[in-house]
Sequence to fold (294 residues):
Amino acid sequence: MFLKSFRGAIALFCVSLLLTVGITACSGASVKSAKVDTSSAVVNLPSAPSPGKALEDIMQRGEVKIAVPDDFPPFGSIGADMSVRGYDVDVASQVAQAMGVKLDLVPVIGNYRIPFLQTNRVDMVISSLGKNKDREKIISFSIPYAPFYSGIYGGDALTVKSYADLQGKTLGVAQGSLEDLELAKNLTEGNVQNVTVKRFANNSLTASALISGQVELIATGNVVANKLMRDNPDQRIKNQFVMKNSPCYVGLRKGDTNLQAKVNEILRNMRQDGELDKLAKQWFGEPLGDLPTA
Fold:
């Protein structure tokens, strides 16, 4: 029985990886990927909770396991005291507090957010997770809890107004990110040739690649780019064009409808009482703004 469950978990892991990065494999762009540490991707897989029983299981054990980023400031990064901190971390803390249970933070890099959820390493993902059709096939989502849009960024000496203008350019992106998927899709659909895409393990390395001159442009989110521009004013970085508006959602397993309803209730209360707006001002330097209702 254990072997069967283990094989099932491995199968889910592989399917999720394919759905996460499979679109990029069809890209006509040349690909240079940074090495990703997979040493802890699948270890000691927990048994799967009964379908629809996730909330009950959490309440019984008195603890919720939430995946958060540790490489994506200001959503989540390692602080001076070596603890993970950021907007997503604070939201996770508020969710656990509202549920009345202890919080077990599980730092996860972008590529493994969905696999960790599907293999029951975590109960939910609060890690700047965007929603798309491929992801909706395999996991469920909460209502939005953070504003976010993806764009192409580079020096103001460049003029890049569309995907077609990327021809002949070298572009950096975080491997497996929503920007990676969106970029690959549009380069393929638009038959845009002669684009060198360098994929890095996380957003920090992607941003560093732009500053160091390894790439001319990067595809990333507005929050990451805003911090990059504030920290490096001499680089004269600007948004070349917006790729996609993509608010952040909490990721949950399919069938966990009771947990989904509970998380939505908590997030609605946080919006109404101003807690999300307070966190947005603290971590993003701007108000929460308008978010979609679903």
